[in-house]
TrEMBL record:
<dbReference type="InterPro" id="IPR006626">
    <property type="entry name" value="PbH1"/>
</dbReference>
<keyword id="KW-0472">Membrane</keyword>
<keyword id="KW-1133">Transmembrane helix</keyword>
<keyword id="KW-0812">Transmembrane</keyword>
<dbReference type="InterPro" id="IPR011050">
    <property type="entry name" value="Pectin_lyase_fold/virulence"/>
</dbReference>
<feature type="transmembrane region" description="Helical">
    <location>
        <begin position="1328"/>
        <end position="1350"/>
    </location>
</feature>
<feature type="signal peptide">
    <location>
        <begin position="1"/>
        <end position="22"/>
    </location>
</feature>
<keyword id="KW-0732">Signal</keyword>
<protein>
    <submittedName>
        <fullName>Uncharacterized protein</fullName>
    </submittedName>
</protein>
Length: 1382
């Protein structure tokens, strides 16, 4: 068939195409050569596809294969691995491999979803092997339904290897592959024990889930869900081992296990099937739907028949139905519950297996007697309801605690290496191994794999939830009258989506109960979703926090009940009632219904009194309102509400509290920022609601509420109604869509813009100084209100906020809602009431200089806002000579250009903190244009730092802002160009000596974000920069793209450090002809090349000029032995530390490469001479820079291949491949290395065989190879590198070095001796105590700019101990504490 030839050709080129390029792949026909499917591919299975003997199909983790549903009468698509072929499908929990249907209309979350709609959309996965079978005749068989000759399986090799299945999911299969032959989800037919099978799942298969036809294959971690017949079926002499099985039958399933062998005339054919199965959890079904493809309708979660033997232990059955075990056609198998004598003709079923809550656990036919005992214990599972079907809202099959019955009477496992030791019965202990990859996880039906303490009972006595315990809120928990619940700072409560009875778990504090939840900015208290993090953020994943008090409300009778909480009243007569403390409390992803059709607010204050302390609280992504006040008088400061599905803040039923410093971001799915009500039945009911709200920022959204409980779809960023009074001053209404304030259903309250001197609570004052901006069509809409109306606010086009995008929503990358001090927020500020609660401030809105959300808000943790730093905002181009001073911290909020003929001077010690986005999708960066200059001259003690403005808890991280770009007029290939993403800004020219300024001791950290569409940026870009520019001591750390890139130009650089970048460390291109010396590059496992040296390829007439000719001497490139590069913008993933290509020339001497799989990869060569004889190259007349020399003395240590050279690039092959460079401290995996010292030891071979550097006035003599001298006095990273600042540098001093420093600085030594007890002689290292260490610390810091770091969580104590001369070797070497600043 024609499609077969097409598929074979596709397979032949698949590996050549590689993972970098997505492809559309149509699987249909035969695969006869090795083929790889990549995660980026769009793969469709359109017919039966056969991997032929000798071929291997490799499937990358994360790949999805979508099977096309065929019309009735046609054979369903299936993937068949024939005997002698292999499938290498190695997924992970984060990147599973999925076989599923191409039917996009199938939605398991739809209300009308059912198993019947999901079953049988395609065929399945069939693996055929050569392991032994037991048959009545012959030693091979054929899978029914497959074409003749293509379904053969069986043989004589018990160790046959059909490949690997890891984290493989097969969903919605089981359709007919041949006449009347539905297929199993996964079929193992004669598959051998050499095959690896772990973490596989079949869900919604029309026929059996997993079937083993003979063979010996072993399997661990099996999940079978909601299939139409049996979950697991064994037959034909299967003799493998299975451990950890989770089965949910659902409404249409039949047996969980059907264990068969082979009968011949009623007698068993031997060898019998002998499966060994341990650690199983079976959740029975309801049998509402007959198993559509079963050959019987008999009961029994486990069915043994046809003479099967086997051993079955640590099994737990729940929701059993009529019978746990059914046995028939036993064929004289020995049936035993004595585990001491289990042979191939014995069926052993442990008496410890749990068959819970059933009167007849065993149904045994005549001749099958022998099973009598089982455990009747309730297993104590966390959340497995009595009816579990495909519409289950939530399930957690793990035991509730270590006190659960499953941890008792555990069966011993067979004594071989396959089995994982366990101390539990069933499939799970604390490890929820289906988390992250199961169907149940994909559709948010199970929690994340978080072990914790279950919260499912009322709090009736004083109780503390501690920060060192993780809590799982599985039900509605009530803090009863008289009880106090204390929650320690830093505690996290993970809440389930459902309690198993259709109600969302919630924490409810009843009247008379108290909650003492006192967090802080560094250790907030968090109520959040228990779902896997990949599902978040998401609204409505649990209930919320409800506090009921005794303060007055306006409802008739003085009390009410929160909807959905029957018998739990709120309201009373004590306005100062005290329900406890909420400080730094976060409630995220809630709002699910706590009863039928009753979604809940994130935090509900119901009749809560002013004796309650509330500050720094946040609700994010709640399905209903964020924070609601039903009456009461509780006051709140520092309130954050983000992206809720209805209103941000809702007041009702006579609420009369005070609120200051409130921010509400409505977002795409929200409604009103505030809905302020009084009483819907009587707008003049007493007490009238009288909220006093000052200093609030309300940011509008789409105006289309996502909540099912919103009672209107009206526009209005604020809604005032039902007779509410109140005071509203110092407000900012931003991003208003059409209507600023909607007021309706008024009572007799006075509505005014002039604050009355009295009359509380019967007036509503809205300050005319309140700011309003956006697409304001009508500032105020008033309906149903007699008398004066609200009309006045201060409308402005620009609110003067630091960064507030006009379309701010859930997807906004970054914003800063603080006002600039010359903006309207600092003008015409209203006085706040003088009552002891309100703080007098000089600004409108929720923020002044302080970013009080930093460190604890969802926005801060998500990297959407800056840290709490303040300084001059850099949002305008530098159009005249300017100095940035060290006394200020600068906020880089957009791309700032230093214009031609302008000089930007940056003082030593200055820090520039850059935002992640400019509000328009571009990363803030500093760009020095052609003809401009940057004079950034720091020092080792006062470096100049460009870094991310994000909270320190998010760092280190790549791609948090853009980078530093310097454009010059030096020559490049092509004359001039633009840096990608920076439109209209050229670089390149004819001035070799062009001067763009000075960069000295300049650090660029955490950059590389997109500066233009799909254009990530380098940390520092030198584009056409000339030799007149001075560059020394520069560093790029944690850049998402390349570290330092040179696009042409002639600029020289010394002392260059590049750390942990996402692509290449150093990149040269477009004719770069500069000089580099002392370069150190550390590449972690996800980074790429240490150096990529390019030029340009030209036509047949010659290579473009000027050819790149970097001269690089004294460089150290350190990789990681576990290198797995994943660069965001690279064109290759070659595992090489140096990549030389595109006809680059250059000189490369004194290079050291360590921890790299490949040392040098060279390709795409031109006409350049490639040599390892420098003298010979220089002697060739007119050769100029048209050669590439790589010294044979360069070190390539530990590489599997020193060189990988493409055809046409021959010439390199010699290097020093010493196995040990004797560097002081370089781990083989540098990722997050805690201790780094890249200097060679005194006895290192790097101090020999070094190449002389060119004698041209730039290069410094270096009598060593690599970037560093053994002498600590020349350790140029000290004092300013990221490694230094973060305590990662470690080194030792010899006696002679210590003595030399003491002689050099006697006056400092005397001073230290007087203050610290004197310095002792001898060797100094991490752990030397007393005055000697203090002296060494300070001496090194002053003399060579290197501080000795003490690694301790309790640095202050350690330092005091050192200074007092008392050694303390007990301080653990864990967290870094920065060194002494003297």
């Amino acid at each position: 068939m024609a499609r077969c030839a097409v598929l074979a050709a596709l397979a032949a080129v698949a590996l050549l195409v590689g993972a970098a390029n997505a492809a559309s792949v149509d699987l249909c026909g035969d695969i006869e050569v090795d083929m790889t499917l990549f995660a980026v591919d769009d793969v469709e299975l359109t017919c039966q596809t056969f991997v032929k003997s000798g071929a291997t199909l490799t499937i990358e983790g994360g790949t999805t294969i979508k099977a096309v549903e065929v019309a009735e009468g046609f054979d369903a698509p299936a993937l068949v691995i024939e005997r002698g072929a292999k499938i290498m499908a190695e997924g992970t929990a984060d990147d599973p491999i999925t076989f599923t249907t191409a039917d996009s209309s199938l939605d398991p979350d739809a209300e009308d979803f059912s198993a019947e709609k999901a079953w049988g959309k395609w065929g399945g996965l069939i693996i055929l092997g050569s392991a032994p079978l037991t048959l009545a005749e012959g030693d091979e068989n054929s899978v029914e339904g497959l074409p003749q000759g293509k379904g053969l399986y069986g043989g004589d090799d018990p160790d046959d290897n059909s490949g690997v299945l890891k984290y493989v999911r097969v969903w919605y299969g089981g359709s007919v592959i041949g006449e009347n032959n539905e297929i199993n989800g996964i079929t193992f037919a004669g598959v051998g024990a050499g095959t690896t099978v772990e973490n596989i799942e079949v869900a919604y298969n029309l026929d059996d889930g997993i079937e083993f036809f003979g063979g010996t294959v072993n399997a661990k971690y099996l999940s079978v869900l909601f299939c139409g017949d049996d979950a697991i079926d064994t037959d034909e002499g299967y003799s493998g081992k299975i451990q950890f099985v989770f089965i949910v039958l659902g409404r249409g399933g039949h047996h969980a296990f059907e264990m068969d062998s082979i009968l011949d005339g009623g007698d068993a054919v031997t060898p019998r099937s002998f499966p060994q199965v341990y650690n199983v959890l079976i959740v029975g079904g309801s049998s509402e739907v007959d198993a559509p493809s079963s050959d019987d309708q008999l009961s029994g979660l486990m069915r043994f028949r046809e003479g099967t033997a086997g051993s079955f232990g640590n099994i737990v059955m729940v929701n059993v139905g009529e019978h746990g075990v059914r046995m028939n056609d036993c064929a004289e198998v020995l049936i035993s519950q004595d585990g001491d004598d289990v042979g191939p003709n014995t069926l052993w079923f442990s008496a410890n297996n749990i068959i819970a809550a059933v009167d007849e656990p065993f149904n045994l036919d005549d001749g099958c007697e022998g099973l009598e005992s089982r455990s009747e214990a309730a297993p104590g599972l966390t959340m497995v309801g009595s009816v579990i079907d495909e519409n289950v809202a939530f399930i957690d099959p793990r035991p509730v605690s270590r006190g659960s019955a499953v941890f008792n009477s555990v069966d011993e496992l067979p004594d071989d290496e396959f089995w994982t030791p366990v101390d539990f019965r069933g499939a799970f202990d604390e490890d929820l191994w289906i988390s992250g990859w199961s169907f149940l996880d994909d559709f948010a039906r199970i929690p994340d794999n978080i072990p914790g303490k279950i919260l499912d009972g009322d709090v009736e006595a004083d109780t503390t939830w501690s920060a060192d315990t993780v809590y799982l809120l599985t039900d509605q928990v009530f803090v009863k009258d008289g009880a106090t619940l204390t929650i320690q700072a830093g505690t996290t409560i993970f809440a389930y989506s459902d309690n198993g009875a259709g109600k969302a778990p919630a924490l409810v504090v009843e009247r008379g109960g108290q909650i003492m939840a006192e967090g802080n900015a560094d250790a907030p208290i968090t109520f959040t979703s228990a779902l896997n993090a990949r599902h978040l953020p998401r609204r409505g994943t649990w209930g919320g926090l409800i506090i009921n008090g005794n303060a007055p409300i306006s409802t008739e009778g003085g009390s009410n009940e929160v909807e959905g909480l029957e018998g739990v009243p709120y309201g009373g007569s004590d306005p100062t009632d005290n329900s406890g403390i909420l400080q730094y409390v976060r409630v995220w992803y809630g709002g699910e219904a706590i009863a039928a059709d009753n979604e809940i607010n994130g935090i509900t204050f119901a009749g809560v009194g002013s004796g309650t302390t509330v500050d720094h609280i946040e609700v994010a992504y709640n399905l209903d309102d964020g924070v609601e006040f039903f009456g009461g008088s509780v006051n709140v400061k520092y309130l954050s509400v983000l992206f809720c599905g209805d209103d941000g803040i809702d007041t009702d039923e006579g609420y009369s509290g005070k609120i200051q410093f409130a921010v509400v971001v409505v977002g795409e799915g929200g409604h009103h920022a505030t809905e302020m009500d009084s009483d819907g039945s009587d707008p003049d009911a007493k007490p009238r609601s009288f909220p006093q709200i000052y200093n609030a920022l309300f940011v509008g959204g789409s105006g289309n509420p996502a909540s099912e409980s919103s009672d209107d779809q009206r526009e209005g960023l604020m809604r005032l109604r039902e007779g509410t009074g109140g005071e509203f001053g110092n407000l900012i209404l931003a991003n208003v869509l059409s209507v600023g304030v909607l007021q309706n259903d008024c009572g007799r309250e006075a509505r005014t813009h002039i604050l009355p001197a009295g009359g509380v609570p019967n007036y509503l004052w809205f300050s005319s100084n309140n700011l309003m901006a956006g697409e304001v069509e009508v500032p105020f809409v008033t309906e149903g209100c007699e008398g004066p109306r609200l009309r006045n606010a201060t409308l402005v086009e620009d609110l003067g906020l630091v960064l507030l995008p006009s379309g701010l929503n859930e997807d906004t990358a970054f914003f800063d809602p603080r006002p600039t001090e010359d903006g309207p927020a600092y003008k015409a500020v209203d006085d706040v009431p003088s009552d002891g609660f309100f703080e007098s401030v000089a600004y409108k809105g929720a923020f002044g200089r302080e970013m009080w959300l930093a460190g604890w808000s969802w926005l801060s943790e998500a990297g959407r806002i800056p840290n709490d730093v303040w300084g001059p905002v850099l949002a305008e181009d530098v159009a005249q000579d300017t100095t940035w001073r060290s006394a200020d911290t600068y906020l880089l909020t957009r791309q700032v250009f230093v214009k031609p003929n302008v000089t930007l001077t940056i003082e030593p010690g200055t820090t520039i903190m850059a935002y992640a986005d400019d509000g328009e999708g571009k990363a803030p960066s500093l760009i020095v244009e052609r003809g401009a200059q940057i004079i950034a001259k720091g020092s080792s003690s006062r470096p100049i730092t460009f870094t991310a403005a994000a909270h320190p808890s998010l760092l280190p991280a790549r791609g948090m802002w853009g980078g530093l770009i310097v454009l010059g007029s030096a020559p490049i290939i092509g004359g001039e160009r633009e840096v990608e993403g920076i439109d209209g800004k050229k670089y390149g020219g004819s001035n070799v000596d062009d001067n763009s300024g000075v960069l000295s001791y300049v650090r660029v950290w955490y950059g590389g974000r997109v500066v233009g569409a799909n254009n990530e940026i380098n940390g520092i870009t030198f584009a056409g920069v000339g030799r007149g520019t001075e560059v020394s001591h520069i560093e790029v750390a944690f850049n998402l793209d390349d570290g330092v890139e040179f696009f042409g130009g002639t600029v020289d650089a010394k002392y260059v450090s590049v750390l942990y970048c996402g692509d290449d460390g150093i990149d040269t291109d477009e004719g770069y002809q500069g000089r580099l010396q002392f370069v150190s590059v550390l590449v972690d496992s996800r980074g790429h090349h240490g150096a990529e040296m390019d030029s340009k390829l030209g036509s047949d007439s010659g290579d473009p000029q000027p050819r790149s000719f970097p001269r690089l001497y004294n460089a150290l490139f350190v990789g990681s032995e576990n290198s797995d590069p994943s660069p965001v913008s690279s064109d290759d993933t070659e595992l090489a530390m140096m990549r030389l290509r595109e006809a680059t020339g250059g000189e490369f001497g004194n290079i050291v490469i360590v921890n790299a799989p490949v040392g040098v990869f060279q390709e795409q060569c031109g006409s350049e001479a490639i040599t390892q004889d420098l003298d010979a190259a220089r002697a060739i007349p007119d050769l100029g820079s048209n050669y590439l020399w790589f010294s044979a003395n360069n070190v390539i240590s530990g590489a599997r291949r020193p060189f990988s050279v493409a055809q046409g690039c021959e010439g390199l092959g010699a290097a020093d491949t010493t196995s040990d460079t004797l560097l002081q401290a370089i781990p083989v995996i540098v990722d997050n290395a805690s201790r780094v010292d890249p200097r060679p030891r005194p006895d290192s071979p790097l101090t020999d065989l070094w190449d002389p550097v060119p004698d041209d006035g730039f290069f410094e003599r270096a009598d060593y190879r690599g970037a560093f001298s053994p002498d600590v006095g020349q350790f140029w990273l000290g004092g300013w590198s990221w490694l230094f600042d973060n305590g990662r540098l470690a080194f030792e001093l010899s006696d002679s070095q210590l003595a030399a420093l003491e002689r050099q600085f006697p006056e400092l030594q005397d001073q230290l001796g007087a203050e610290g007890g004197g310095a002792s002689s001898g060797s100094s290292a991490a752990g030397v105590a007393g005055g000697a260490v203090a002296a060494v610390v300070a001496l090194i810091a002053v003399a060579v700019g290197v501080i000795f770091y003490v690694r301790s969580r309790r640095f202050q104590k350690k330092y005091e101990t050192l200074m007092e001369g008392r050694p303390d070797s007990s301080i653990p070497e864990t967290e870094m504490a920065k060194g002494v600043a003297l």
